[in-house]
C-alpha cells in the first residue's frame, strides 16, 4: 500500500490545531483515547503516528502510555515540563492516591537545601514503575498503607492543584524512605531547615498509624541529639507515648553492625552511626 504523505500531514495538522486550542484553554495534558474520540475519521495507527511526530518535534511529551503533556511556550526551549505541573492529572489517569514527598515536599517549605533532580511521589500499592522522559523522572515510592489525607496539604501550581505531605509527614518520610534520597545524613541535612516549620502538637493517631514506629524513634533521636531541637523531640516523644507507640531497641542505621555501640535509653536507638550534615 502506497503511503499518502498528504493525508499524514493533514492528520498531524488537525491534531496539532486541537492540541493548541486545548492549551489556550489552560489544559496541558490529554489522553490518547481523547484524540481518537475527537477524530473518528483518523485510524488509531494514524493518530499514534501523528502523536509520535509531535513528540519528536518537542511539541508534546509522552509520559506514560496513553498520557501526553503539552509543552507550553515558556518551556519550549528546554523541551520539558516540570512534573509538578501535571502530576495530579497523571495520578488521576493512573487511578492512584498520591502525594508529593521527600525532598520535593521539603522544597515547598523552603527546606530543600539543593534543588531535587527528580520528583518523588508516594502512592498506593501495587508497585508502579518510575515515569521517565529524556529530561525528567518521577520516582514512585509505593506504600501498602492508606495514605492519610489529613496529613496532606494542597498547593497550587501554574496549571493544577497538587497534594504535598505536611512538614510533619515530610520529616517522618525522610527517615522512612531515606534510601530514596541518599541516606540518613542527607535526611538530617534537610531536617535542619525543615525543623523550623514543624508543629508536632498537631500529631494524632492517624499520623502514628501511618508512620512506622522505628521512623518516629530515629526522627526523635536525631532532633534531640543531633539537630539541637530538644523541644520538638519532647513533643514528639509525648505524642508517641500517648498514641500507644511501643519503643523497642533498634539501630540508627539498619545496614550497619550494632555490637559495641551505646544505646540511647529514651528513644531506644543503638547509636551505630555518626551523623554529618551539610549545614
Considering the chains and any ligands shown, give keywords for the structure:
single chain, 279 residues, alpha+beta, Arc Repressor Mutant, subunit A, Beta Polymerase, domain 2
Give an account of the 3D structure.
It is a single chain. The protein folds into two domains: 5-75, Arc Repressor Mutant, subunit A, CATH 1.10.10; 83-270, Beta Polymerase, domain 2. A hairpin with a 4-residue loop joins strand 11 and strand 12. The chain has helices at residues 5-24, 32-38, 44-56, 87-94, 102-108, 167-176, 184-194, 205-210, 213-225, 230-242, and strands at 29-31, 60-64, 67-70, 98-100, 119-124, 131-132, 137-143, 152-156, 161-165, 250-251, 263-264, 269-270. A four-stranded mixed sheet has the order 4-5-7-6. Strands 1-3-2 form a three-stranded antiparallel sheet. Strands 10-12-11 form a three-stranded mixed sheet. By secondary structure, the chain is an alpha+beta fold.
Give a short account of the largest sheet.
Answer: 4 strands, mixed
- CATH structural architecture of the largest domain: 2-Layer Sandwich
Q: For this entry, what is the oligomeric state of its chains?
A: single chain
Query: Taking strands numbered 1, 2, ... along the chain, how are they ordered across the largest sheet?
Result: 4-5-7-6
Give the low-pLDDT segments. none
Distance between the termini: 66 Å
How many domain units? 2
In DSSP terms (H or I, runs of 4 or more residues), the helix count works out at 10
| SS elements, strand count | 12
Shape: elongated
Mean pLDDT: 92
Percent strand equals 15-25%
User: From the helix content, strand content and strand pairing, which structural class follows?
Assistant: alpha+beta
Amino acid at each position: 500500500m502506497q503511503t499518502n504523505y498528504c493525508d499524514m500531514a493533514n492528520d498531524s495538522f488537525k491534531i496539532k490545531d486541537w492540541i493548541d486550542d486545548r492549551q489556550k484553554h489552560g489544559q496541558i495534558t490529554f489522553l490518547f483515547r481523547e484524540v481518537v474520540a475527537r477524530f473518528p475519521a483518523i485510524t488509531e495507527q494514524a493518530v499514534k503516528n501523528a502523536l509520535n511526530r509531535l513528540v519528536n518535534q518537542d511539541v508534546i511529551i509522552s509520559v506514560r502510555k496513553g498520557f501526553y503533556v503539552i509543552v507550553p511556550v515558556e518551556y519550549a526551549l528546554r523541551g520539558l515540563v516540570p512534573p509538578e505541573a501535571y502530576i495530579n492529572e497523571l495520578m488521576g489517569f493512573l487511578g492512584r492516591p498520591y502525594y508529593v514527598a521527600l525532598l520535593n515536599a521539603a522544597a515547598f517549605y523552603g527546606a530543600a537545601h539543593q534543588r531535587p533532580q527528580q520528583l518523588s511521589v508516594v502512592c498506593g500499592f501495587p508497585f508502579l514503575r518510575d515515569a521517565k522522559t529524556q529530561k525528567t523522572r518521577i520516582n514512585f515510592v509505593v506504600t501498602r498503607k492508606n495514605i492519610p489525607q489529613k496529613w496532606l496539604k494542597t498547593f497550587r501550581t501554574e496549571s493544577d492543584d497538587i497534594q504535598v505531605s505536611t512538614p510533619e509527614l515530610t520529616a517522618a518520610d525522610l527517615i522512612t524512605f531515606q534510601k530514596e534520597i541518599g541516606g540518613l545524613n542527607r535526611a538530617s541535612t534537610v531536617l535542619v531547615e525543615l525543623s523550623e516549620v514543624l508543629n508536632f502538637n498537631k500529631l494524632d493517631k492517624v499520623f502514628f498509624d501511618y508512620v512506622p514506629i522505628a521512623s518516629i524513634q530515629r526522627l526523635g533521636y536525631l532532633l534531640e541529639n543531633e539537630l539541637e531541637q530538644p523541644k520538638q523531640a519532647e513533643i514528639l516523644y509525648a505524642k508517641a507515648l500517648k498514641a500507644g507507640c511501643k519503643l523497642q531497641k533498634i539501630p540508627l542505621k539498619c545496614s550497619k553492625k550494632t555490637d559495641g555501640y551505646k544505646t540511647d535509653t529514651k528513644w531506644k536507638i543503638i547509636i551505630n552511626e555518626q551523623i554529618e550534615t551539610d549545614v
